[in-house]
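Sample entry (216 residues):
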Amino acid sequence: MSAIQPNIQQPVSEEMELVRRAKRGDDTAFEELVRRYDRNVFRIAQHITQNREDAEDVVQDAFLKAYGNLAQFQEQSKFYTWLVRIAVNEALMRLRRRRPERMVSLDEEVKTEDDSLPREVADWSPNPEQMYNQAELREILTRTIQGLPPGFRTVFVLRDVEGLSTEETAQALELSIPAVKSRLLRARLQLRDRLSRYFQKRANGDSDKSSGDGDQ
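Predicted structure, serialized as tokens:
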């Protein structure tokens, strides 16, 4: 007698179980998804729009749109990745309305100088000795991120701030993986350069003050 193979089903993630319950009309399940992700979506929206009120509107619009289109979610990716895509599109639309003279898009291809697949820049941050305290560093880093072009900024926030994988970032932004890697490389290089210049100015300023004190 041949052994009967058990019918083993893959376990459904907690997130996907909430999504399926929400699809069946369970509003409490969708409310749990909102509680789980609203802060993340708000941070992403604020980084893109650079405006708190716009970010709050983006969060509301993104969840409303996700709720209204739950039936279209094919469960081929994480719900959070799908939600981020909606939120990014909403945030970019607000930027376009606010800055019609400067079209904001993630569709344009960005290539490295040698037109090859970019290498990873694992350590783009300044020397740890230059990080005076975490609160100051967060403020400096936030201002520096805000100075990046929207296409670079969005990829950097999703990948390095929110912790999405390269594949998830590509899915959320509907970009190719090489395009995500290219933008991420450029963003990290720009951030490293800007932060290094900032800390160099701080170091020079402190040394000037020290030499000035010694002359008195």
